[in-house]
Design goal:
Blueprint (H helix, E strand, L loop, with lengths): L3 H19 L10 H42 L52 H4 L5
Length: 135
């Protein structure tokens, strides 16, 4: 029994030391173009939803101000001058234009020669003046 207790403690210590490695997260798989497009659409939809919520809040605040001003007018109290604020902007219906997928390397012109110069150099000084020979 005396020999098995240190052995048991040693095995338990090694097991506890190795346990965090067993629970480590695997790296996320590489995003496919379809997944990237879906993520972009989801982000655009979330941004549009935020704009709609802001518009609805603005309209509700306008209704509250109108109701309070009507109550003040009916009571014969002076209506305070409103603080100038921007008008409520309706975001309109959701419209998402999917980004164009990237071209393959061959179609992108990676192996094409440089285009012909369409304009003169940006300086009128000759190269010999800007880069004197220091030999």
């Amino acid at each position: 029994m005396k020999k098995s207790l240190p052995l048991l403690c040693g095995v338990l210590a090694v097991g506890l030391a190795a346990a965090p490695g067993a629970f480590a997260k695997l790296p996320a798989p590489a995003a496919t173009p379809e997944a990237q497009a879906k993520a972009a659409e989801t982000a655009a939809k979330a941004a549009w939803t935020t704009k709609v919520e802001t518009y609805q809040l603005c309209r509700a605040q306008e209704r509250v101000v109108a109701h309070v001003n009507a109550g003040l007018t009916a009571a014969g109290k002076p209506v305070p001058t409103p603080t100038p604020t921007p008008a409520c902007a309706d975001p309109g219906p959701f419209a998402f234009a999917a980004p164009e997928p990237p071209k393959p390397i061959e179609a992108s012109g990676a192996h094409s020669p440089a285009p012909t110069a369409g304009s003169p150099p940006s300086t009128n000084q000759p190269s010999a003046e800007t880069h004197p020979n220091t030999k």
